[in-house]
Write a structure and sequence with these properties.
By secondary structure, this protein is α+β, with helices and mostly antiparallel strands. It is 27% helix and 41% strand. It is built from four helices and twelve strands, in the order H-H-E-E-H-H-E-E-E-E-E-E-E-E-E-E. A hairpin with a 2-residue loop joins strand 8 and strand 9. The longest helix has 37 residues.
Length: 230
Amino acid sequence: MTARGQANLVGFAVAILVVVTVTVAGVALANDALVDADRTPARTHAAERLAAHLVHGEAAHTRERNVLRAAAADNLTAADLNSAVPPVRGRPIRVAVGGNVVLERGDPTRGEYARIERRVRVERDVPRSANVDLTEDRRLVLSDHAGQVAIRIETDRVPRVTTVRAGDRVVLHDPTGLDGRYTFRPPATQPLPVSFEVESGLRGRGTATATVSWTATNASVESLEVTVGD
Protein backbone atom coordinates (compact mmCIF):
# COMPACT_ATOMS: atom_id res chain seq x y z
CA MET A 1 0.00 0.00 0.00
CA THR A 2 1.35 3.43 -0.92
CA ALA A 3 1.91 6.18 1.61
CA ARG A 4 -0.97 8.10 0.11
CA GLY A 5 -3.28 5.10 0.51
CA GLN A 6 -2.22 4.68 4.13
CA ALA A 7 -2.94 8.36 4.77
CA ASN A 8 -6.42 8.04 3.22
CA LEU A 9 -7.13 4.97 5.38
CA VAL A 10 -6.08 6.80 8.55
CA GLY A 11 -8.23 9.76 7.54
CA PHE A 12 -11.21 7.49 6.98
CA ALA A 13 -10.72 5.90 10.41
CA VAL A 14 -10.58 9.33 12.01
CA ALA A 15 -13.72 10.35 10.16
CA ILE A 16 -15.54 7.28 11.47
CA LEU A 17 -14.35 8.03 15.00
CA VAL A 18 -15.62 11.60 14.77
CA VAL A 19 -19.01 10.54 13.47
CA VAL A 20 -19.45 7.87 16.14
CA THR A 21 -18.36 10.28 18.85
CA VAL A 22 -20.84 12.91 17.72
CA THR A 23 -23.57 10.31 17.47
CA VAL A 24 -22.90 8.98 20.97
CA ALA A 25 -22.79 12.50 22.34
CA GLY A 26 -26.10 13.24 20.62
CA VAL A 27 -27.67 10.13 22.12
CA ALA A 28 -26.37 11.11 25.55
CA LEU A 29 -27.85 14.60 25.20
CA ALA A 30 -31.15 13.13 24.02
CA ASN A 31 -31.22 10.75 27.00
CA ASP A 32 -30.55 13.63 29.37
CA ALA A 33 -33.45 15.54 27.80
CA LEU A 34 -35.74 12.54 28.16
CA VAL A 35 -34.76 12.09 31.78
CA ASP A 36 -35.53 15.74 32.46
CA ALA A 37 -38.79 15.45 30.52
CA ASP A 38 -39.82 12.41 32.55
CA ARG A 39 -38.79 13.97 35.84
CA THR A 40 -40.31 17.44 35.52
CA PRO A 41 -43.74 16.92 33.86
CA ALA A 42 -44.93 14.13 36.16
CA ARG A 43 -46.53 16.55 38.59
CA THR A 44 -47.54 18.85 35.73
CA HIS A 45 -49.20 15.95 33.95
CA ALA A 46 -51.04 15.05 37.16
CA ALA A 47 -52.17 18.67 37.61
CA GLU A 48 -53.41 18.86 34.02
CA ARG A 49 -55.35 15.61 34.38
CA LEU A 50 -56.86 16.78 37.67
CA ALA A 51 -57.88 20.17 36.25
CA ALA A 52 -59.43 18.46 33.21
CA HIS A 53 -61.43 16.11 35.43
CA LEU A 54 -62.72 18.91 37.63
CA VAL A 55 -64.30 20.71 34.64
CA HIS A 56 -65.41 17.62 32.70
CA GLY A 57 -69.02 17.88 31.59
CA GLU A 58 -69.88 14.31 32.67
CA ALA A 59 -68.40 14.53 36.18
CA ALA A 60 -70.72 14.15 39.17
CA HIS A 61 -69.82 17.62 40.49
CA THR A 62 -70.50 19.53 37.24
CA ARG A 63 -73.69 20.60 35.51
CA GLU A 64 -71.92 20.78 32.16
CA ARG A 65 -68.39 21.45 30.91
CA ASN A 66 -66.71 24.25 32.90
CA VAL A 67 -69.80 24.62 35.13
CA LEU A 68 -69.30 23.47 38.73
CA ARG A 69 -72.12 22.67 41.13
CA ALA A 70 -70.83 24.36 44.26
CA ALA A 71 -72.33 21.97 46.81
CA ALA A 72 -70.97 18.90 45.02
CA ALA A 73 -67.54 20.47 44.51
CA ASP A 74 -67.37 21.35 48.21
CA ASN A 75 -67.94 17.68 49.07
CA LEU A 76 -65.16 16.24 46.88
CA THR A 77 -62.79 13.90 48.70
CA ALA A 78 -59.22 12.78 48.03
CA ALA A 79 -60.56 9.25 47.52
CA ASP A 80 -62.87 10.56 44.76
CA LEU A 81 -59.93 12.13 42.97
CA ASN A 82 -57.64 9.12 43.44
CA SER A 83 -60.26 6.99 41.71
CA ALA A 84 -60.99 9.43 38.87
CA VAL A 85 -57.43 10.71 38.31
CA PRO A 86 -54.83 7.97 38.97
CA PRO A 87 -51.78 10.29 38.40
CA VAL A 88 -52.57 12.20 41.62
CA ARG A 89 -52.46 9.09 43.83
CA GLY A 90 -49.92 9.50 46.58
CA ARG A 91 -49.26 13.15 45.72
CA PRO A 92 -50.03 16.21 47.84
CA ILE A 93 -52.83 18.17 46.20
CA ARG A 94 -54.89 21.28 46.75
CA VAL A 95 -58.10 22.38 45.00
CA ALA A 96 -59.42 25.89 45.52
CA VAL A 97 -62.55 27.50 44.08
CA GLY A 98 -62.86 31.26 44.22
CA GLY A 99 -59.87 31.42 46.54
CA ASN A 100 -61.43 29.00 49.04
CA VAL A 101 -59.72 25.65 49.54
CA VAL A 102 -62.29 22.88 49.08
CA LEU A 103 -59.85 19.95 49.27
CA GLU A 104 -56.27 19.60 50.48
CA ARG A 105 -54.00 16.63 51.08
CA GLY A 106 -50.56 17.33 52.48
CA ASP A 107 -48.69 20.47 51.49
CA PRO A 108 -48.21 20.51 47.70
CA THR A 109 -46.07 23.68 47.81
CA ARG A 110 -43.43 22.34 50.21
CA GLY A 111 -41.17 21.23 47.36
CA GLU A 112 -41.49 21.30 43.58
CA TYR A 113 -45.09 21.72 42.43
CA ALA A 114 -47.31 22.48 39.44
CA ARG A 115 -50.22 24.89 39.55
CA ILE A 116 -53.00 25.31 37.00
CA GLU A 117 -55.70 27.96 37.11
CA ARG A 118 -58.92 28.09 35.06
CA ARG A 119 -61.94 30.36 34.98
CA VAL A 120 -65.16 28.44 35.60
CA ARG A 121 -68.84 29.09 36.19
CA VAL A 122 -69.91 28.15 39.71
CA GLU A 123 -73.60 27.51 40.34
CA ARG A 124 -75.11 27.53 43.81
CA ASP A 125 -78.59 26.21 44.50
CA VAL A 126 -80.93 28.66 46.21
CA PRO A 127 -84.26 27.39 47.62
CA ARG A 128 -87.31 29.47 46.64
CA SER A 129 -90.99 29.28 47.53
CA ALA A 130 -94.14 31.25 46.85
CA ASN A 131 -97.71 31.08 48.09
CA VAL A 132 -100.53 31.42 45.59
CA ASP A 133 -104.04 32.33 46.71
CA LEU A 134 -106.05 30.58 44.03
CA THR A 135 -109.09 32.74 44.76
CA GLU A 136 -107.06 35.70 43.47
CA ASP A 137 -104.50 34.32 41.06
CA ARG A 138 -104.03 31.06 39.21
CA ARG A 139 -100.64 31.58 37.66
CA LEU A 140 -97.05 31.84 38.89
CA VAL A 141 -93.90 32.36 36.81
CA LEU A 142 -90.61 30.73 37.82
CA SER A 143 -87.92 32.93 36.32
CA ASP A 144 -85.22 30.35 37.04
CA HIS A 145 -85.42 26.74 38.17
CA ALA A 146 -83.34 23.58 38.44
CA GLY A 147 -84.45 20.11 39.47
CA GLN A 148 -87.85 19.17 40.80
CA VAL A 149 -90.71 21.46 41.75
CA ALA A 150 -92.89 20.73 44.78
CA ILE A 151 -96.47 21.93 45.20
CA ARG A 152 -98.64 21.72 48.29
CA ILE A 153 -102.30 22.28 47.53
CA GLU A 154 -104.74 22.98 50.36
CA THR A 155 -108.46 23.43 49.85
CA ASP A 156 -111.60 23.21 51.98
CA ARG A 157 -112.82 20.70 49.34
CA VAL A 158 -115.60 22.99 48.20
CA PRO A 159 -113.48 24.25 45.31
CA ARG A 160 -111.51 21.66 43.37
CA VAL A 161 -108.06 22.19 41.88
CA THR A 162 -108.12 19.69 39.05
CA THR A 163 -105.03 20.40 36.95
CA VAL A 164 -101.58 21.94 37.22
CA ARG A 165 -99.67 22.90 34.09
CA ALA A 166 -95.99 23.76 33.75
CA GLY A 167 -95.65 25.63 30.49
CA ASP A 168 -97.80 23.71 28.00
CA ARG A 169 -97.42 20.40 29.84
CA VAL A 170 -99.94 18.91 32.25
CA VAL A 171 -97.89 17.82 35.27
CA LEU A 172 -100.69 17.08 37.77
CA HIS A 173 -104.29 16.09 37.14
CA ASP A 174 -107.10 14.64 39.21
CA PRO A 175 -110.72 15.35 38.23
CA THR A 176 -111.85 14.66 41.82
CA GLY A 177 -109.52 17.37 43.11
CA LEU A 178 -105.85 17.70 43.97
CA ASP A 179 -105.11 18.06 47.67
CA GLY A 180 -101.77 17.46 49.42
CA ARG A 181 -98.12 17.60 48.43
CA TYR A 182 -96.87 16.68 44.96
CA THR A 183 -93.56 16.83 43.13
CA PHE A 184 -92.77 16.84 39.44
CA ARG A 185 -89.86 17.46 37.11
CA PRO A 186 -90.75 20.47 34.95
CA PRO A 187 -89.72 21.15 31.37
CA ALA A 188 -86.49 23.09 30.92
CA THR A 189 -88.33 26.22 29.72
CA GLN A 190 -87.16 29.38 31.46
CA PRO A 191 -88.98 31.44 32.55
CA LEU A 192 -91.56 28.78 33.33
CA PRO A 193 -95.26 29.62 33.91
CA VAL A 194 -97.08 27.35 36.37
CA SER A 195 -100.87 27.56 36.13
CA PHE A 196 -103.76 26.02 38.05
CA GLU A 197 -107.16 24.97 36.77
CA VAL A 198 -109.87 25.35 39.38
CA GLU A 199 -113.54 24.47 38.99
CA SER A 200 -115.64 27.43 37.98
CA GLY A 201 -117.37 29.47 40.62
CA LEU A 202 -114.51 29.26 43.13
CA ARG A 203 -114.55 32.94 44.00
CA GLY A 204 -116.74 33.51 47.00
CA ARG A 205 -117.38 29.81 47.63
CA GLY A 206 -114.29 28.68 49.53
CA THR A 207 -110.53 28.82 49.81
CA ALA A 208 -107.70 27.16 47.95
CA THR A 209 -103.99 27.87 48.22
CA ALA A 210 -100.88 26.45 46.62
CA THR A 211 -97.36 26.65 48.00
CA VAL A 212 -94.81 26.20 45.24
CA SER A 213 -91.21 25.33 46.16
CA TRP A 214 -88.34 25.10 43.71
CA THR A 215 -84.60 25.58 43.39
CA ALA A 216 -83.14 28.60 41.64
CA THR A 217 -79.51 29.07 40.68
CA ASN A 218 -77.07 31.75 41.75
CA ALA A 219 -74.10 31.70 39.37
CA SER A 220 -70.76 33.48 39.26
CA VAL A 221 -67.50 33.22 37.33
CA GLU A 222 -64.63 32.26 39.63
CA SER A 223 -61.13 30.82 39.55
CA LEU A 224 -60.47 27.09 39.86
CA GLU A 225 -56.93 26.51 41.11
CA VAL A 226 -55.26 23.11 41.17
CA THR A 227 -51.87 22.54 42.84
CA VAL A 228 -50.03 19.21 42.73
CA GLY A 229 -46.70 18.50 44.40
CA ASP A 230 -44.14 15.69 44.35
